[in-house]
Specification:
- It comes from Aquibacillus rhizosphaerae.
- By secondary structure, the chain is an alpha/beta fold.
- The protein folds into 3 domains: about 375 residues, Glycosidases (TIM Barrel); about 80 residues, Golgi alpha-mannosidase II (Immunoglobulin-like); about 30 residues.
- It is about 35% helix and about 25% strand.
- The chain contains 15 helices and 20 strands.
- Strands 1-2-5-8-9-10-11-12 form an 8-stranded parallel barrel, surrounded by 4 helices.
- Helix 8 links the parallel strand 9 and strand 10.
- The longest helix is centred in the C-terminal third of the chain and has 29 residues.
- The termini are far apart.
Length: about 475
């Protein structure tokens, strides 16, 4: 099998079928909206696989499993997501509730269920038009991995990571090691029919491996997804050049800072609006960062308001939104540390969930939001307006992060048209001086489509006048009768 993988990659390179062939295609992940699940801390759906569960110990398994995800597929679908990203589900050592201490890449973690459970998850997800992708970690392996004794030359170094100290690093420059990972990735696709991977790499990961991995996966099915997760800029540049989607931590951190406080200008975000942005996965909080809700609370802000503005931006700029489980309920662990508690899916009110559903529906309806060019219209202190354009379709996005009402003026709207708000039902028409004035109250946002200006609906106005007139007349008559009776 390993020799076959090397031969396949060599043949693809010989034929010119490297990852660059996908650069001219409409990458299928641009339309995705991703929900990230930390499997052990999501939902416990099957008590029969509750081995060594201790919910009072933050470092132990808490019982979340694949069946729990199956039970919540409708919930995820209703929120408007198109893809589910699972934390690593491969076999882990006892300390690896999070899945990042893998000791066997071709075996499922029995704490989470069986291979048949994963197959059932994929089947039921697909029935709901949901994709399922798996975290795939190549930066390190568990200290308990058999390679340390059976194949010590497959390990080249040790590194300190958030998952542990002195973790063994695979020698990915060795063909036998890289082929093993290709084989393992192929194994899960063949066994479970998953839709792709989120590939965790770092500065020590050879560029050749990154290219080969995406090439090999897509050679099996061009519709398979490969996300690349790294904080190394050189690796990011290489992945973007190969048209791979990159989880960009730098941009996400700036977004968290900007939107955590009212009054902040959105100008620091504009510099990231380049041609490569369509290839970035972006988030407000994640498995490895503090909750965005925590950042807002620290600033003395209302998390619900902060989330609405942040999500409006996240869902309408170039890139793929990635939402960490529980964010839809403004979860907050009260600490400046990642939140790995069980997802509190039934807590909080429905307002933010409804808002996310609305944004997802708008994002799906207008291709300009996922595929279009982006252009800054105006940046007025804390209020920013930009437009997305694609094949004759234009969408305007206005976000007022200021502490007072702000107005932005437009003059390039076609004659006879109006701007119709999709979030607040605002209608903006041309004024006598020929301009459109978009006014937003403090800490609000709206998304505008262009449609024909139908003017005042006189039929509706007449109906309202008649109804109101009839009501007033009835009140007057009743009042007069009452006075006569009193006399």
């Amino acid at each position: 099998m390993k020799k076959n993988i090397t031969l396949i990659l060599s043949l693809l390179v010989f034929l010119g079928l490297t990852t660059s062939v996908y650069a001219d295609e409409d990458s299928n992940w641009k339309d995705e909206t991703v929900y990230y699940i930390l499997v052990d801390r999501f939902v416990n759906g099957d008590s029969e696989n509750d081995y060594n569960i201790d919910i009072n110990d933050a470092s132990s398994f808490h019982g979340g499993d694949i069946q729990g995800i199956i039970n919540r597929l409708d919930y995820i679908k209703e929120l408007g997501f198109t893809t589910i990203n699972l934390s690593p589900i491969m076999s882990n050592d006892p300390k690896g509730y999070h899945g990042f201490l893998i000791d066997d890449f071709q075996k499922i973690n029995e704490q989470f269920g069986t291979m048949e459970d994963v197959r059932e998850l994929v089947r039921q997800a697909r029935d709901r038009d949901l994709k399922v992708i798996l975290d795939f970690v190549v930066t390190h392996v568990s200290e308990e991995h058999s390679w340390l004794t059976s194949n010590p030359t497959w390990i080249e170094d040790n590194k300190d990571l958030i998952w542990g100290d002195a973790l063994p690093t695979p020698a990915l420059d060795k063909p036998v090691v890289s082929d093993y990972f290709m084989e393992s990735a192929s194994y899960w696709i063949n066994q479970t029919d998953v839709d792709g991977y989120r590939l965790y790499i770092d500065s020590s990961t050879p560029n050749q491996f990154i290219s080969d991995f995406a090439t090999y996966i897509k050679s099996q099915d061009s519709n398979l997804i490969v996300f690349t997760d790294t904080s190394d800029q050189m690796v990011i540049d290489h992945a973007v050049a190969s048209n791979e989607m990159v989880i960009n931590h730098e941009v996400s951190q700036v977004m968290s800072t900007v939107f955590s406080k009212s009054g902040n200008s959105l100008e620091p975000l504009v510099e990231f609006w380049d041609g490569q942005n369509n290839q970035r996965g972006l988030y407000m909080d994640s498995l490895v960062t503090p909750r965005f809700t925590r950042e807002a609370v620290k600033q003395g802000e209302n998390p619900l308001t902060r989330w609405k503005l942040a999500l409006t931006y996240l869902y309408t700029i170039p890139g793929t939104p990635i939402i960490y489980q529980g964010s839809e309920t403004t979860m907050d662990n009260g600490m400046d540390a990642p939140d790995h508690r069980m997802a509190q899916l039934n807590s909080g009110d429905e307002e933010l969930k409804n808002y996310m559903e609305q944004l997802a529906a708008i994002r799906k309806q207008f291709p300009a939001i996922t595929k279009g060019d982006i252009e800054l219209v105006e940046n007025n202190d804390g209020m920013t307006m930009f437009k997305r354009t694609f094949e004759g379709e234009t969408i305007y996005v206005a976000i007022n992060n200021d502490t007072e009402t702000k107005t932005i003026t437009l003059s390039d709207v076609p004659e006879g048209m109006q701007l119709t708000g999709l979030l607040q039902d605002n209608i903006v028409r041309k004024q006598q001086d020929g301009v459109f004035k978009i006014a937003l109250e403090r800490e609000t946002a709206d998304i505008f489509m262009i449609e024909e200006d139908t003017g005042i609906n006189w039929l509706f106005v007449s109906f309202v006048v008649l109804v109101l007139g009839g009501f007033v007349t009835s009140v007057v008559i009743l009042s007069r009768k009452s006075k006569k009776q009193e006399k």
